[in-house]
Amino acid sequence: MKRISKTKEDFGWAKWDAETIKRVAREILDKKKGILDEIKKLSDSELNFENILYAFERSNDVMEPCNYFSILMNASPDESVRKAAEESIKIIDRENIDLGYDPDVYKVFKKYADTNPVLEGEDKKLFDDSVKVYRRMGMELPDEQREILKNKIKRMNDLATDFALNIQNYDDYILATLEELEGLPEHFIEGLARNDDGRYQVSLKYPEIGPFMQNAVRAEKRKELMDKALRKGGEKNVAIAKELLELRKSGAQLLGYKSHGDYMTELRMAKNSEKVTKFLSGLMAKLQSFVDEDYRVLLDYKRRKFDAETSDLKYYETGFIAEQLKKEKFSIDSEKIRQYFPLDHVLNEMFKVYGELFGISFSKTDFILWHDDAVAYEVKNVQDQGTVGYCILDLHPRPKKFGHMACWPVVSGRLDNFGSGNFVTPVTAILGNFNKPTASRPSLLSHDELETLYHEFGHALHNLMSKTKYASSAGTSVVSDFMEVPSQMMEYWVWEPSLIARFSKHYQTGEPLDSETVAGMIASKNYLIAWATMRQLIYSFFDIAVHGENYPEDLAQFCNNLIEKHQYIKLPPNLFPAGFGHFAGYDAGYYSYMWSQVIAADFFHKFKNSGLLNPDTGREYRDKVLAVGGSRDEVETVRDFLGRDFSDDAYLEEIGLKG
């Protein structure tokens, strides 16, 4: 299939103003309505796959500018653009629901479905998925109940958008004098904004709060910042969370499910919430004794170094104590290691690794995007120089920009027409918040941030290398408990000694990390792994539990109790899950990260056993996993690549707990 290179004009959307966004929003809705109107006019003799199922695909393809709106809402420096994008997304979400619930369109589809069409491959998958979607939308419910469900979905979409934006726009910080920044490296302090009186601002953005909580010597300042972090999202999001829970529960029960958790897991690999709960509870039980040991180690270190009479760990101490013990135990200083990972060098070496593994190259374009920090790369096949796709990187923080790191599909790869031999070239974007370069140093990544970069590029590769016929199954359009597999698998590469040396280059001397430091990093890989994993399991358990048949009135206290039970840390009253971004768009799905890790480790061991940069394994992975996206059952994809069902042996080995 031929992929066409893009030009500057194809990225003109990156400079849309507010009025253009509003106009385009109306135009694409009108286009979608036009396609659906064509379906409603079909005669019985015209009922076929192209006129109905592919028409559904086309009606979604014309809505692709919604991806542009999402990027601009999260990354544009222009407030009017962000606001217009936000408002347009809300309008489109609401009207899309009405269009999806059009009973006349459903009647035509149902008439076609009743003919039991003989289909295969991606066409059959698209048809089967459409049948399930209509059932889960409540199209078989009585009219009155269907209308109630539709209105609930509209409200949930609006609330989810508000919830995410309340987190993104939540702007709080502490003020600190230079003396109160004791323990923080010079480059960190240089990057901080300053107040009118000269004091430094330390915000809740993760490039600031993370290093601060690990390195700031003044406990009272760590407490002050953590107390603010525990209120991120604000009271507004507490109210939204409770309303969302009630809407999700009542909507699922209207469709005949016991809980929203059962509704959400039905189409995933897990199939039901009971299986998820057993999966999480089982892992928590297996890890508890290791967590107990981690707690003892941290508490002993606190007594030895800071407070001989202490009887517990405070919620604002664990990150600091863990980091100081790590430095002592492994002779590792995360901030010194950061000096060896300048962003430009890291990107260049990462592109080379992907070139060796997958036969692709990356080259900068001169496309004009929404901000000078944003850069588009053209990705090509090395063998024939054919275009694979485009990857946009916007990796530094700005006011009101998306506050974490994530990958967006911008243009989904797909056939450009029914039965066509031409392929729409995919575009993907990664938004991040790595520290900005200063006059005296480049942007420098911690090893954790390097791992995060590889994680997000795992998603980007999934989007770029898709070869599916339809956008609805392209790239990361897979079930959520498989979606993180490609991203989590890529994280393992940054822990291989030979590659760490290759990725590292001191920003001043040009020297790689010495072998002793690399050995210490590898030895520290599973340092306090049970402790860190338990926190992820707690949040996963919280998520699936509150989406059960009943949910606790005090959500924050419910989570606090889980943390105190399993990690012995007592948190003060707080606003959780007001700042828990996954609550809005990953409901009853946070467990997927842990579920996917098991599969990712199994995949990685296939590379490890054949050679980390073996191009044959890379080609097999590209063809059998990345290219197929969600065009077939993910269980089949796993079996195709591994030659068997996955097991947890590789995962347990990777975290040092096998046997």
UniProtKB/TrEMBL annotation:
Keyword hit for DNA-binding: no
Keywords assigned: Hydrolase, Metal-binding, Metalloprotease, Protease, Zinc
Cofactor, how bound (note): Binds 1 zinc ion.
InterPro entries: MetalloPept_cat_dom_sf, Neurolysin/TOP_dom2, Neurolysin/TOP_N, Pept_M3A_M3B, Pept_M3A_M3B_dom
Cofactor(s) listed in the protein's UniProt record: Zn(2+)
Superkingdom field: Bacteria
Gene Ontology biological-process annotations: peptide metabolic process; proteolysis
Listed GO MF terms: metal ion binding; metalloendopeptidase activity
Domain Peptidase M3A/M3B catalytic: 213-656
Coiled-coil segments on the chain, per record: none
A Pfam match: Peptidase_M3
Keyword Signal: no
Family membership: Belongs to the peptidase M3 family.
Protein name stated in the entry: Peptidase M3A/M3B catalytic domain-containing protein
Organism annotation: Candidatus Yanofskybacteria bacterium RIFCSPHIGHO2_01_FULL_48_25b
